[in-house]
Write a structure and sequence with these properties.
With 126 residues, this protein is of the alpha+beta class. It contains 2 helices and 5 strands. 21% of the residues lie in helices and 33% in strands.
Amino acid sequence: VLQQLSEWLMKGMVQKLVLVISGDDGEVAERWQFDIDADTTASGQGAGSDETTQRGIQAIVKQVTATQTFLPLLPDSCTFDLLVYANSDADVPMSWELTDPKLVVNATNVKLRSFSTRVHKVDTTV
């Protein structure tokens, strides 16, 4: 999955990546949505310095960690699904399956900080 995702990200073929955490009963407990805007005209070169990219990632991780103050506790036993929203012309592996959007019932969405390089911009919602 990660190899295919990496390939599609490098080609600008992914619009959204969603991490869904569910309890054993199948009820969705959390849904982390990453909206990805890729500039396909930009080259991977000059995407920003490694130091700037690392600082941006650190800020996002810090904000994700802080969400524990307002998110409900997760069930003792959880599963997760990774939903990939790719271009319609993407060659989807046969082992992958279509699914519903796995929304949280009665959800309140919280928008987190955006992260950008010259190639990708990522907006996060939980």
